[in-house]
Task: inverse folding
């Protein structure tokens, strides 16, 4: 039964498991398909650690209104807070790990909720916009959708500014992103079944 599945997330290793069995994440699927391109070479332990700190501070702000972060990284959070003051979103999920037994994929969308009553899925970014972000957000939308008949969410990449200026939002609207996301997730699922 679905209720018997227990999702665990290990933040130090950034791994998901269901009932003790490791499950690939959305990001791992995208990377395995080679969609990150040259972006993969820019990820270092330091950039990953910085992103984790900034994401945690933004989540703390959303959950409690209070956050702590080093002054050198505060601008990113100020950038997010400035965007919040203009858009007034209502978040139902803030950094909430999720698992789809149908797609056999796990992941954590940064935010799920509504803006002006419209359903959205949002990902916070501390770097530049990239084409694969639209596919990533499509994967998250599919992951969190309870029924395939539910309408797609608006997909927003929110690009935080180091200098504290208001974050730049980009809406990803290409239907092809969903085609790529579904193909990617189903292809990986088939490969996993073949290996068993």
Result:
């Amino acid at each position: 039964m679905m209720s018997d599945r227990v999702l665990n997330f290990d933040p130090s290793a950034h791994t998901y498991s269901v009932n003790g069995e490791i499950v690939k994440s959305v990001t791992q699927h995208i990377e395995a398909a080679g969609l990150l391109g040259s972006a993969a070479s820019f990820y270092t332990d330091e950039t990953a650690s910085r992103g984790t700190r900034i994401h945690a501070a933004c989540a703390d702000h959303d959950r409690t209104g209070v956050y702590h972060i080093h002054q050198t990284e505060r601008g990113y959070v100020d950038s997010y807070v400035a965007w919040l003051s203009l858009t007034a979103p209502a978040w139902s999920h803030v950094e909430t790990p999720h698992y789809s037994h149908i797609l056999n994929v796990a992941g954590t969308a940064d935010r799920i909720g509504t803006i002006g009553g419209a359903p959205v899925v949002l990902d916070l970014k501390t770097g530049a916009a990239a084409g694969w972000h639209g596919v990533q957000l499509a994967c998250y939308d599919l992951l969190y959708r309870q029924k395939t008949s539910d309408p797609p969410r608006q997909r927003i990449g929110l690009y935080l500014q180091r200098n504290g200026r208001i974050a730049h939002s980009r809406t990803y609207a290409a239907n092809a992103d969903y085609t790529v996301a579904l193909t990617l997730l189903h292809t990986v699922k088939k490969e996993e079944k073949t290996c068993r």
Summary: The beta strands are 7-10, 15-18, 21-23, 90-94, 98-100, 105-107, 111-115, 118-125, 154-159, 168-172. Residues 188-196 have pLDDT under 50 and may be disordered. The two ends are 21 Å apart (CA to CA). The chain is about 40% helix and 25% strand.
